[in-house]
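Problem: given the chain below (196 residues), write out its structure.
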Amino acid sequence: MRGFADIRLSEHDNFCPASLSQPDVTHKIETGVMASGSNYSGLEAFVSRRGDLVALANTIVRNHAVAEELVQDSWLQWSNKSYPSADAVPILKRIVLNLARDWHRRQRREWARFEAYSLLYDDAPDTERVVIARQDLLNVVCALQTLSSRSLHAFRLSRVDGLTYAQIGAEMGVATSTAYGLVADALVTVTLATRK
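Solution.
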């Protein structure tokens, strides 16, 4: 991507009169003299005020990258129309403000559409399911409190820590079949508690 310092004028550029030859145009730019009908003073104003224009756009859009793009778009709008060169700075500011406000409005509309969509297609459970789930959780907690300490420990090792029955047996110092029986008892108690 070329920066403003890399711009080379030729007879094919929009802001360069076709009647001028390349050396003549380069000389006129270097000396600051251009034909009164060209966009040179607009380009000069744009380049010299570019930082201010980006800051102006950034106050509205609150995103530096977007502000940079909007300022670039403002130059495209400026160069596609024939504005008076003397009014370059205020017109460029107005173009940047309009583009920034349009971008901000578009973002608000998209956010509103997203909000509406999320309200229509919300995956959150309804109130009845939340109440049922809370009651089930309360029943499970109460059922776990009724278990023996060995069954509760085996259940935690199985369901929370994810150990196999052989690992549970080794951890607790019991046979694998005993570990299986302790976890099975806890599961039966929990299952019955959720059906209340």
